[in-house]
Amino acid sequence: MEMLTRMFGDTLWIYTAIGGSVLGAAFLAWFRNTKAALYLMGKFDGLLDHLVDRFGWEWLQDDPEAWRKRYPKVTKKIDDMERRLNDLEAKSPKTLGGKK
After folding, report:
1. Tell me: the pLDDT tens digits for 27-70?
2. Residue 14 lies in a domain
3. How far apart, in whole angstroms, are the C-alpha atoms of residue 50 and residue 55?
């Protein structure tokens, strides 16, 4: 019986951790759409850019092609439009200023 009392008696930290996690998640869900959040995200992004420039920490840089993975349909449409534009420029170089 003493073992069960010890096992379930010292569990307040578990409940406070779970409660804190739930409240933190609720706060972040509300906070992310505020102007203050956008401002702070901009400042944080600026700090990371500064660290990359100052110390050369390449692992903090954003991947410039990350949007292609996130939006594959838009990427496909843009690639198709660029291909069509290049074809048109190749067919009529004088009119559109394309390369010969």
Report:
1. 999 999 899 999 999 999 999 889 888 998 888 777 888 889 89
2. yes
3. 8
DSSP for 35-98 reads HHHHHHHHHHHHHHHHHHHHH--GGGSPPTTHHHHH-HHHHHHHHHHHHHHHHHHHH-HHHHT-
Task: Name the least confident of 7-11, 15-19, 94-98.
Answer: 94-98
Report which DSSP code applies to 33: T
Domains identified in the chain, total number: 1
Q: How far apart are CA 93 and CA 91, in angstroms?
A: 6
Question: Residue 12: inside a domain, yes or no?
Answer: yes
pTM: 0.47
Tell me, yes or no, whether 53 lies in a domain. Answer: no
Instruction: Give residue 20's domain range.
Output: 1-31
Residue 95: inside a domain: no
Q: Which of 78, 75, 56 is nearest to 66 (CA)?
A: 75
What is the structure's pLDDT at 96? 55
